[in-house]
Amino acid sequence: MLDDFFVRALLAGIGVAVIAGPLGCFIIWRRMAYFGDTLSHAALLGVALGLLLEINITLAIFTVATTASLALTVWQRKSTVPQDALLGILSHSALAIALVILAFMTWIRFDITALLFGDVLSVTKLDLAIIYGGGALILFGLVYIWNRLFAATVSYDLSVSEGGDPDKVNLIFTILVASTIAISLKIIGALLITAMLIIPAAAARRLARGPETMALSAAAVGIIAVVAGLFSSLQWDTPSGPSIVVAATLLFFLSLTPIAARFKTFLFRNNIEERP
Question: Per-residue pLDDT tens for 180-192?
Fold first, then answer.
């Protein structure tokens, strides 16, 4: 029989996978992997500031990650520095500042490894409530803006011509990503959050024939990775967060094999076409 802490870890990981999968699809489509990495490093700065100011850690992470995304939006419009350079500057500077702040707080005992790589086995019932409550709001927001966000992803000009406001929709999307990172940090860790956003979506891309099926497939791949990673962690006493990411990586490579292609053909044998 599984212990309560392991059941909570499974539930938490599954909740994160369900949220990260659909959001990760847009990150893949928009080629925003480095953006997600930047926000995850900013999340570590949120942890440091939350401990320093003695405020709720999740709220501090969300605030810092959202501020970072807004700052990037403004800088990209006004700065002559290339976007990838801005992302690199903000990403590494946020991580460095966070580690310096944590080093100065000698009166606080914390596990830096857990912050970087997650500690899903220490999830509490309150954490579960935050993940599922916050996750429901995130998914509702994503469904609400799905069509407009997809149009803005395909073509900025197309979105404008259809009467949309791509800038507003893009801002909402970055807030949703920041929220996901805020509620996922304890599970996966600052250095591995982006992996859970990208890898399941990348694997699902080989299995889907449309955006909606890709989003559902990404969530399914993430759930399988969580279950496989946690049970392998339990079996071989390996770190839980990295084990989940390794499982997701194996699923990605499996999606590249002929077996995955035949599985896709089986799923869509009725040849019903979906939107590209």
Answer: 998 888 788 887 8
107 burial (CB, 10 Å; 0-12 / 13-18 / 19+) is exposed
| pTM of the predicted protein model | 0.88
- Two structure tokens written together for 85: 């350079």
State the residue range of the domain holding 25.
Answer: 4-195
Residues 6 or more apart in contact with residue 221 via CB below 8 angstroms: 21, 200, 203, 204, 207, 248, 251, 255
The answer to whether residue 207 sits within a structural domain is no
Q: Please write the tens of the pLDDT for every residue from 198-231.
A: 999 999 988 777 899 999 999 999 999 999 999 9
Report the 10 Å Cβ neighbour count for 84: 10
Does residue 183 belong to any structural domain of this protein?
A: yes
Where residue 123 falls (left for φ over 0; alpha for ψ -120 to 50; beta otherwise) is beta
Name the amino acid, one letter, at 252.
F
Residue 235 lies in a domain: no
Q: How far apart are CA 34 and CA 51, in angstroms?
A: 26
Q: Does the residue 269 lie in any domain?
A: no
When divided into structural domains, the chain yields a total of 1
What's residue 272's pLDDT? Answer: 44
**Residues ≥6 apart with Cβ < 8 Å to 76:** 83, 86
CA distance 40 to 94: 10
Does the pLDDT value for residue 26 go beyond 70? yes
- Rounded-to-integer distance, Cα 244 and Cα 227, Å: 8
| Range picked from 71-85, 131-145, 180-194 for highest mean pLDDT | 131-145
